[in-house]
Amino acid sequence: MSFSARIFVTLFIIFASEAKFLPKSRDGCRALLGDDLIKEIASYKNVKNEIFKYVLEGDFKRKTYDELGKFVDTFGARPSGSQVLEDSIDHMIKLTREEEINDIVTEELEVPHWIRGTEKVTMLEPRIKDIDVLGLGRSVSTPPEGITAEVVVVKNFEELSNLPKSDVDGKIVVYDPIFTTYGETVVYRSQGASKAAEKGAVASLVRSITPFSINTPHTGSQNYDDNIKKIPAGAISLEDADLLRRFYDRGEKIVLNITMSSTYETKTSRNTIIDLKGTDHPEKLVIVSGHIDSWDVGQGAMDDGGGLFVSWAAPVILKRLNLRPKRTIRSIFWTAEELGLIGAYAYEEKHRNESHNINFIMESDEGTFAPRGLAVAGTQEARCIIAEILKLFKSINASTLVEDDSPGSDINVIIKNGIPGASLHNANERYFWFHHTEGDTMNVEDPDELDLCAAFWTAVAYIIADISADIPR
Question: How much is the pTM?
């Protein structure tokens, strides 16, 4: 599948992932599962407590946070295709081997490598003001002198569509949607440039996809339509977008100069796969995962350093505690997630003939704040099993099951084929404050919450991998 085709599917997956629903009544779960399985799941309380005690009070206390801190401080941002990303992969392999886990495989694949250069937006009319901007992933460059043009401000695609082409031709389109949910609002970032170009616009800017700002633009991936002229695309802060909206609503002429440069090529990267082999059914997999790449702004501590490290911690904690489940625990560190789930597509294609062995797949990619439960895709019976497991975590307020047919980003590439899975449901109300910005640093992470996530992630994965019943499809 080409990069552009993958990105199209990726965007569909991201939008669908916002369709979350409250859990339905689980009165029928006992009838579906039977008393024996329910009692068996309840019997894992002591194992769960052992894992939590080791992580929250024992030798692993703050280990996840400390290793994440070293990782983030050493490597910083890890863009797709960069040498620093490859060095960070080597670091994770070395760190894992130091824990005497040696069942590690890397799988090479081609990934996009987009590098931003100069980026500057200046408002020339009705007054002179610099506008903070971050180019969107894969944006094309402007001419060296930049693009100087009048601005049209629109709230949504419908408003753009209703404008005569002559009102947009040769102008810069600024989208200023108010953040509702990520899935509803992100379309203006991901599709805005092509829809503006189709009407004759020469550049596209979007109000950053966030509910909160301290004059902080948020970057992110965007998708060009191959049949439409590619125009430069960037994100501006909420404050500057709202300023432009006020000028526009007053009928004042707005003129901007946009200067952007970038390069784009492909490089070789790797997915990283770590196995803690199961005792009875080593061929059957319970996968925990996070992506190791990040955007080039910030340090990728939250997106997705935390998810990466709780997924690294799971087999390490179990190995240290000599807890070997019946099925294999597999940790996957996806590469090139940010520019189109490239690592996930490559893994799915390479392992398609083995997909029947995936018992359950998990991903953490929306923060590692206080755990609240799981967002789960699967049959009603599968969700009932996970709901019973989550009952063991009531004491930390992490027993919520959110029914979600597209619960993750990378894992949706696999879940869409009918494989059950889940993402971490956590108290991430402020996640999109820092998402894809310079603010994604270690200051966002809390060591105690990260410990809770690591313990929760490990215990859930262990129970799923060890119970007598496979997760049904």
Answer: 0.94
